Every structure is written in C-alpha cells, then in structure tokens.
Amino acid sequence: MVVVPAGEFLMGSASDxxxxxxxxxxxxxxxxxFWLDQFETTNGLYARCVAAGACRPPAQNRSNIRANYYxxxxxxDYPVIYVSWSDAEAYCHWVGKxxxxxxxxxxxxxxxxxxxxxxxxxxxxxxxxxxxxxxxDTTRVGSYPVGASVYGAQDMAGNVWEWVADVYQxxxxxxxxxxxxxxxxxxxxxxxxxxxLRGGAWNNDLRAVRAxxxxxxxxxxxxxxxxxxxxxxx
Length: 234
Known about the structure:
Helix content: 10-25%
Distance between the termini: 12 Å
Strand order of the largest sheet: 7-6-5-8
Shape: globular
Radius of gyration: 16 Å
Number of helices: 4
Strand content: 15-25%
Largest sheet: 4 strands, mixed
Structural class: alpha+beta
C-alpha cells in the first residue's frame, strides 16, 4: 500500500473545460492519514477470497478480447473485473481493509495540487491504458509506472474503473463536510443504490480518465471495465 498523509487538497473541478457539472464546485477537503493499495486488485488476489468462500466469483470469466481471463494463470496479475460494489466491499473486508471514500480516492490520484491526471495536467497516452493507446483490454497492473500519482499509486487513470465506498449524489460537493467527508447517507440497499466508480478504464478517453471524473452506476453493476482498489486507515 501507499501512504497518503494527512492534510488538505482541492477536490473537484473549477476551470477545467473537460469537467462535468457534478464535479463542481471545487472545494478544499482535509483528510486524515490513510493507506491505499498501490495496485488494483488482481485476478489472483481475488481468487483467494473466492477460494476461501468470502467472495463470489466474477460474473463472467472473459474480458473484452479474451474468451478466458479470470481463471487463466497468465492473467493472474491483471485486474479483476465483472465485480459489483458488494463484491468489492466483500473483498476489501476479507483482507482487513475497506473501500476508499470518493475524497480519499481523489486525493490519492491527484495529490494536494489538484492535478488533472495522476502525473500532472497534460494528457499523455504513454502514461496509462486508455482508448488512445492501449491494447483494447486490461493490462497487467503496474504496467505504466510513469503514470503513478505523487503518492506512488499506479493505474489510477485507465485500465479499470474502481469502486469507491460512497453512494452517488450529484450535488454532494455543495454540502459535504470539509473534513473526512463520509459520502451521502445510504437510504437504499446495494441492489438498488447508485454508486460511484473512479479512474476510467481501458475503453475510455482523456476526459473520462481525469482524476476528478465521477461515474455513477448502479452498485449491482458488473462489467468488463469495473474493478477494485482497497484502503486502510488503521
């Protein structure tokens, strides 16, 4: 895991012409120290949870261009996909961690200076697995070390979307607390709630993989672009 030290950062977007409305207003957030997985959860790691009976297998074995993926040893170090929010939560709980909040994920991705991408403000297709230069599917985690965030977290842009703990609320940035925002109150079970994914995936472009981008989707969603990254705060 990588450590993200306590302190303030700028969350959301202000003048970015690529920003979506639910990324505003940009606001200062203080977070306590936490740790985040350096890499996305892999097929191999997730399979241990399945073998222990604590996780459900991914909804499908394949990936976009591979008929067999999850169960193939060659792809053990590739990100697990076809997992729902509940699957992600179960895995993180099993390893003694949790899903990161939206605020934690974003700070880990962009640092205190509100960088547009984990590595800085200029898009560079060589720094990530995205539609601009990737192979049209997932890649081994950590394949783009030059694209790491200031804290050392890798693949925070592209490869697979990552579930966060929060449910989705379009105007939450207007009312969220200034310190350690926990996300909106949950009023619906995961089978009905709309969750949030972060980071973009291999099939997304330079707009979707920005660190401030928020994708809202039903928490029951499983797809060839949705994966896991866990957090820990002691």
